[in-house]
Design goal:
The protein is an alpha+beta fold and about 300 residues long. Helices cover about 25% and strands about 25% of the residues. Bound molecules: protoporphyrin IX containing FE (HEM). Its cofactor is heme.
């Protein structure tokens, strides 16, 4: 299996190596939270997430890409990763994005994108010929490009955005297996900045705004589960589900503190509690081994620093 090493090498080649840090989503901040699941979900999943009891969560907001010091006023994709600590030390993890769907349909596409978008030291920009060749080989990337065109993408704080599973997963219990996707919808509302508002912001405003909100009000998200209809794409993260769908309010995540440690966490999205199973989405299945390579490298470097 060469992919996990190749892709982490490609991330390092594109972004440089920031010793002891993640090879992707390098800039981020840890938080502590509580999640109370909705028992109505037990109809679909036996996960302890939906026991109705409060569970502790260690999470992380992040910027996509291996940029250690990207400014918060850059137009960039953001992530929210969650580790739920369930009874008997069972863990459940999610690593979501504030995108409606993913740009590439295969791990090869993700790798090809890293290789094609390396900045030319002369021009400071990727080689347009390489980018064009990449898009010709992975034409699905035009879908996300079109969806984001002209859209304001950056919120005025991490608390004013929705984060999506993007992949489909199966909810399971003794009776059935149900395909679903989910989103964390902010109770404070989604608020995106216009281009002119964004350019006035400083490099740490996403965190500063979140800190301020946390002092003044409840910062929370509702987990909204969307059940698949027959025929919905289950293995292609670039395919949105169109039309009416059954949606279930699956619980509430409430942020409690920004004083948390999450650097020692590998937010592998296949670490799922009993009651969830992965689909055969090839991008989802390729993430776990790649995260492990990144995790191993950063821990080894941290050890060497001491
Ligand atoms: C083949 C496709 C992908 C590859 C190779 C990849 C690779 C990586 C790597 C190497 C890391 C850093 C892991 C660590 O050192 O802890 C990472 C972090 C992350 N990825 Fe991916 N990724 C992929 C697709 C995705 C997708 C589809 C999503 C969302 C649906 C996603 C969301 C995230 C998030 C939120 C983080 C940050 C987690 C944290 O805060 O620690 N990635 N990714």
């Amino acid at each position: 299996q060469q992919f996990p090493v190749d892709v982490v090498n490609a991330l390092e080649n594109k972004f440089g190596v920031h010793k002891g840090q993640r090879r992707n989503h390098t800039k981020g901040l840890c938080f502590a939270a509580e999640f109370t699941g909705n028992k109505a979900m037990q109809q679909y999943s036996e996960s302890q997430l939906f026991s109705g009891n409060k569970v502790n969560v260690i999470g992380r907001f992040s910027h996509a890409g291996g940029y250690a010091a990207i400014s918060d006023n850059a137009v960039n994709t953001h992530g929210m990763a969650l580790r739920f600590i369930l009874p008997h030390s069972e863990l459940h993890q999610m690593a979501m994005l504030n995108l409606p769907f993913f740009d590439v349909a295969t791990p090869q596409g993700f790798l090809a994108k890293q290789l094609a978008t390396v900045k030319d030291p002369q021009t400071g920009k990727p080689d347009p010929a390489k980018v064009a060749a990449f898009k010709a080989q992975y034409p699905e990337v035009k879908k996300l490009e079109a969806a984001l065109k002209g859209q304001d993408r950056v919120p005025d704080g991490y608390e004013h955005d929705a984060y999506n599973s993007i992949h489909a997963f199966y909810l399971t219990n003794n009776q059935q297996q149900t395909a679903a996707r989910w989103s964390f919808i902010p109770d404070l509302g989604i608020k995106k900045l216009s281009h002119s508002e964004l350019t006035k912001k400083d490099s740490e405003f996403l965190t500063a705004h979140l800190k301020q909100s946390l002092k003044q009000r409840k910062v929370s998200w509702h987990m909204q589960v969307t059940l698949a209809n027959p025929g919905d794409a289950l293995t292609d993260p670039t395919e949105q589900w169109a039309g009416l769908h059954q949606q279930i309010d699956a619980g509430t995540l409430t942020l409690t503190s920004l004083n948390a440690e999450c650097e020692s966490i590998n937010y592998d999205p296949l670490l799922l509690s009993k009651g969830f199973l992965p689909t055969q989405d090839p991008v989802l299945l390729a993430r776990s081994p790649a995260y492990a390579v990144s995790f191993g490298r950063r821990l080894t470097e941290t050890a060497q620093h001491k």
